[in-house]
Amino acid sequence: MRYVALATDYDGTLASQGRVDGETIDALKRLAASGRKSILVTGRRLEDLERVFPEVTIFDLVVAENGPVLSRPRSGEIRLLAQPPAPTFVDALRRRGVDPLAIGHVVVATVQPNDTLVAEVIAELGLDLQVILNKGSVMVLPRSVDKATGLAQALNEMSLSPETVVGVGDAENDITFLSMCGRGIAVANALDAVKQRADYVTQGRSSAGVREIINQLVTDDLQSLDAVARARA
Fold first, then answer.
1. Crossing angle for the helix pair 87-95 and 114-125, nearest 10 degrees?
2. Class assignment of domain 5-81+145-232?
């Protein structure tokens, strides 16, 4: 087979309104039965993900917090791929009244329009951090850390080449990891910027689009998708 793994975003892609339905879980089981691996690539913190998606153990690996956390959900093993946030930074955000404020293993998260205030604090403290926006969410991470760097670490652990991976996503922060995959696919509800960079856009929205890709992977290793892409070219 050409494509041996699926890497998918969570919110807006695998999940609709934060939840994954039974039909999609069944599709993931069919994917596993075909001998393929699955990697969840999400901006969510692990504890939040496990709360809304207890079936996360269906995935072989999880890249969380938009890249810096790698988890083996079946064993509970967690590996940090970047340094945790400095306490001085977190304290400064709290003093400036940034609310809500969520602290992960590495990520510091809030919502817009707090991004301006967060950027000011980063500049004042001279920190080497970046602000990532994702449909109203604000994530702060070390520079050069994103979903692509996290996925690269996951693939290294699994001894897989990016060319053998199909990536699926919907938002700005998915573009980096979709671009590194052998096939980068946008679901129908994806932002225009994602669709423009994708190799293919699904007919279905969010989870229906993921199921569409899984079905094509299991049926013919995306041969039919390639035929459609050639016809449109």
1. 130
2. alpha beta
Write out pLDDT tens, residues 38-89.
999 999 999 999 999 999 999 999 999 999 999 999 999 999 999 999 999 9
Write out pLDDT tens, residues 113-139.
Answer: 999 999 999 999 999 999 998 888 999
DSSP 3-state of 182: coil
Hey, how many other C-beta atoms are within 10 angstroms of the C-beta on 47? 11
- CATH fold of 87-142 reads Hypothetical Protein Ta0175; Chain: A, domain 2 (3.90.1070)
Sketch the domain layout of the chain as residue ranges.
Answer: 5-81+145-232, 87-142
Q: Output b/e per residue, 71-86; b: 16+ Cβ within 10 A.
A: bbbeeeeeeebbeebe
- Cα–Cα distance for residue pair 10/55, rounded to 1 Å: 13
Establish whether domains 5-81+145-232 and 87-142 are of one fold.
no
H or E stretch covering 5: strand 5-8
The backbone torsions φ and ψ at residue 113, rounded to the nearest 5 degrees and listed phi first, read: -95, 25
Task: Identify residue 201 by its one-letter amino acid code.
Answer: V
pTM over 0.85: yes
